[in-house]
Design goal:
AhpD-like, globular, about 65% helix, mainly alpha
Length: about 180
Amino acid sequence: MARNALPTPAQVPAASKPTLDGFTRNIGFTPNMMTTFALSPIAFNAWATLLSSLSKALDVKTRDSIGLAVSEVNGCNYCLTVHSFTAEHMAKLPANEIILARKGHASDPKRDAALQFARKVITTRGKVGDADMKAVRDAGYTDANVMEIVALVAMYSLTNFFNNAFDPEQDFPAVAPAGSI
């Protein structure tokens, strides 16, 4: 159950409306999380800018897989439903790859290295070791790519924390709890 009532369109500040309308056009509907987040134009527009910039980082399968791994660690059910949906429909990941990503792995060795590194970043709060850096670099990631992985972890954590705090009503298909995968 949502912790807060979903804002009405009239309650969304004018400074958030252009960004929110853009998401609605691109997605085809307005996710509850975005409507709620839009109550703060500063936070919402900053997040949207970060999301837009990071949509150019790495490839869509790796980005969505990092979203799944981070959301699993942070226990964000809302984001797990969103990333499972986008991983299947946009990144075209098969169900077994979505499950692997939630566990911080992938069948592709390079993507697996990125996911293991992302999971290490979130579980250690960024205090990764030299061996972690070597492993992700040895998989073919540049230092710029490693910075992008860290930025993606931070961005996904932001939405995880937001959704865990405000608990918007689910509007994407439910996913199985981690214990049953």
